[in-house]
Amino acid sequence: MFFFLSKTLGIMLLPANFLIGLGGLGAILLATRWAVLGRRFLIAAVLLLAIGGFSPLGNWLLYPLEQRFPPWDAARGVPDGIIILGGSIDPDLSAAHGRAALTHAADRMIAAAALARRYPNARIVFTGGNANLVSDDTAKEADYAILLFESLGIPRERLTMERRSRNTQENAEFSKALVTPKDGERWLLVTSAYHMPRSVGLFRKAGFAVEPYPVDWRVGGLADLLTFSPVAIDGLERTDIAVREWIGLTAYRATGKIDSWFPGPGPN
Predict the structure, then answer these.
(1) What is the model's pTM?
(2) Phi, psi of 48 (to 5 degrees)
């Protein structure tokens, strides 16, 4: 049920979808006796879409997420394993073309390949199935991730692929069951910086101690908090990404799937 709601209600609540729906409802109401309400809905939708698209709103919402965990410190020593969360490969598009089709989160795969070369003895674990609400067993991220890693020179024997997970909670639970980490082992967790708080919280809940390795930043420094976007779709994308994460953190905390609303460095 939680997965179903996240792929229906959760998607409907994303700013771009919600505001387009609000504007559409307003346009319909214009032809009824509630035309005044319809005009208000339509004006509100257009104004809020403009704010989300052109203003720094998305940057403001993303910045605390991305800054929650600092870059990983290589001076701490060699890791025993590296876990890469799915989300960087479109499984259905990959199946259609017979090769890995990367998404905007491709930085996860690039960073993972670089880490694999830097630490040749570390185990490499990719966790990702198909996050679509309706899917079959023919299109899984992990199946194309292994081909991509091999093409980048990572031997197959180093790779452990988890192909059943549909969301971050399953990423954590299935990865732990697959690799059975031992006490004292050091595992890096590679995912987008904005996604790291929720990911770390879920791995902690699963009892899998990981060290955050954030990548795929969408916001630079403090100056970006005052930067307007010249292209509305770019600003709306950042706003949608940030709102999805804040909704996810709230929903996971409310249902007890994470122990802290905003997981950060340390035991919280």
Answers:
(1) 0.92
(2) -70, -35
